[in-house]
Amino acid sequence: MEELFSVHYAEVGLKGKNRIFFEKRLVSNIKVALRGTGYAEIERLHDRILVRLGKNADVPEIKKRLQQVMGIAYFELACTTERDMTAIKETALQQIQGRTYESLKVETRRTDKTFPLTSPQISAEVGGHLIEKTGARADMHNPDLICWIKITQKNAYISTEKIPGIGGLPVGVSGKVLVMLSGGIDSPVAAWQMIKRGAKAVFIHFYSYPYTDKASLEKVIELAEILAVSNYRSLVYLVPFAELQQTIVTQTPAPFRVLLYRRMMTRIAERVATLINAEALVTGESLAQVASQTLTNLRTIEAIADIPILRPLIGEDKAEIIEKAQRISTFDVSTRPHQDCCSLFVPKHPATRASLAELADAESNLDIDALVETALNNLEKQVVG
Questions:
Q1: Cα distance between residue 55 and residue 214, in whole Å
Q2: Neighbours of 111 (CB within 10 A)
């Protein structure tokens, strides 16, 4: 008898001819996620992934980490035994010992149709044995405990708990994106949603120290570390933005300042994306949440970009975003006070529907190429995770 984790996926299994690529990436990510936990081996089968345990494996820690691996639909801690009804019944009895329940149910899946008993027959025989030995009652509709049995060509697997995973796709199968991480509530959630869709996230943060405090820098590193649990080793690019902002303030009309900040950030981020082979930029923008996020202003910001700008939160309201931030554990860090660089030198009446012609005219006094190059020359990089 062997105890192991049986890992199952959903969307990955629908990828047709590309399925093997997705499965192999999921196996690779599981290996990275489980470093130092004492697992012995990870085996990819045709319909699931097995995580075999070493003698000193940290089972609770493995369970915790598997729950954070993108691409896993659910997993179960199972015992394997030989394809013999006596062995199956005794293993099932061992699996339910120590559990609190008054009713139970046995569910069987027989992938090897040459096994002499059908799935209902196996369930009935094992269920009868468990009821006889424990005194529990059978309940086919709302049992306190379910015992799952799977019969394959080589073994029988018995488990009593299906643990939900995050779902989505394995990180890395959808390419690389550069996330504009602000330190607020929205952008970490946007990053997480792209990671869940299989994108490898790299982060860029614009800060205005010494005109603002260092809180945003500290928060962004913490947020990147939280996201690195699923994103794994992550890069954070830090861009000093204060001098560029001062130039905009002194040389452009006040109502357009925030939009001009955003356009300059986009230009700089696009250059960094090119350096790291990222295929898109990602922001935490939500339609009409603030003045710079009206449909007109979003269009004028992205007009200067040559690569896609993805906005995973575009149709979500603040309550929905906050709920997700709480669920992924970024909310507490995001809500610590900090001074955002875009809030520096903000005009009293920012433009809500600036035209492309107006912004082009507002930027006409700026040496845009020189400003972008200066920012890139002062770029810093940190590795987290």
A1: 46
A2: 12
Instruction: Please provide residue 308's backbone torsions phi and psi, each rounded to the nearest 5 degrees.
Output: -60, 145
Q: How many helices and strands in the chain, by DSSP H and E?
A: 13, 15
Q: For the chain, what is the mean pLDDT?
A: 93
Task: Give the tens place of pLDDT for each residue, 155-195.
Answer: 999 999 999 999 999 999 999 999 999 989 999 999 999 99
Task: Identify whether the C-beta of residue 33 lies closer than 8 Å to the C-beta of residue 66.
Answer: yes
Q: Identify the three-state secondary structure at position 297.
A: helix
Domains in the chain, please, with CATH?
Answer: 2-164 (3.30.2130.30), 176-384 (3.40.50.620)
**297 contact partners, CB below 8 Å, separation of at least 6:** 259, 291, 351, 352, 353, 354
Distance between CA atoms of 347 and 359, rounded to whole angstroms?
16
Using only C-alpha atoms, the chain has a radius of gyration, in whole angstroms, of: 27
Give me the percent of the chain exceeding a pLDDT of 70.
Answer: 96
pTM above 0.85, yes or no: yes
Residue 213 confidence class, pLDDT cut points 50, 70, 90: low
Please give the Cα distance from 165 to 9 (Å, whole number): 9
Backbone angles phi, psi at 250, to 5 degrees: -85, -15
Cα distances (Å, whole numbers) of residue 127 to 86, 87, 195, 284, 367: 13, 14, 42, 51, 77
